[in-house]
Amino acid sequence: MRTHVRWIVTRDYPEVLAIDAGSYPVPLGLNDLTQTLRRRMVGGTVAERAGEVVGFFVYERAGVGCTISRFAVRPDARRSGVGGAMLDRLVSKLYAPSWTTLEVVVPEDLASPAACRLLSSRGFKARLVRGEPADSYVFRYLLPAEAGAVSDSA
């Protein structure tokens, strides 16, 4: 089944919040989501299949990269290519010299083996960061140098 990845719009919020509630122990509320997406340099994307939202991510751009702050796939759509399609879409937007890194911070207690495999399969490298209140894995993707050279000449 084809996955269509597009910008989030307000009519998607109920489905996004339901997916978030099924994926995080402390889910976003409508006000949290709305305020986050109104901030400068923050974007949101959804993945659709057959007209239904089956995944989403929220990211914030800073410096030469961005950090994905929320990333979730509806439980019945997991391990079907939705997460990969969303990551591929974001990676395809990288270009040198202005946007060359992506980071995903995953609290250690939320780092499922499937999520770790997905990020690793897309070229993200993980490192454990000890911190307060909890330890986290930081998955980082760097735009390959040769890809930057191609983008610069285009």
Any overview of this molecule?
The chain has 154 residues and is an alpha+beta fold. The protein has one domain: Aminopeptidase, CATH 3.40.630. 31% of the residues lie in helices and 33% in strands. A 7-stranded mixed sheet has the order 1-2-3-4-5-7-6, with helices on both faces. It is globular. The termini are far apart.
User: SSE order in H/E notation?
Assistant: EHHEEEHEHEEH
- Radius of gyration, in Å, reads 15 Å
Kindly state the percentage of residues in helix: 25-40%
- State the total count of DSSP E strands: 7
Largest sheet: 7 strands, mixed
Which strand order does the major sheet show?
1-2-3-4-5-7-6
Contiguous runs where pLDDT drops below 50 for at least 5 residues: 147-154
Shape: globular
Distance linking N and C termini: 32 Å
Q: What is the SS-derived class?
A: alpha+beta
Measured by DSSP, the beta-strand proportion falls in: 25-35%
Question: Number of folding domains?
Answer: 1
CATH architecture: 3-Layer(aba) Sandwich
Q: What would the CATH topology be?
A: Aminopeptidase
Average pLDDT figure: 87
CATH class categorisation: Alpha Beta
User: Number of helical runs?
Assistant: 5
CATH superfamily: Gcn5-related N-acetyltransferase (GNAT)
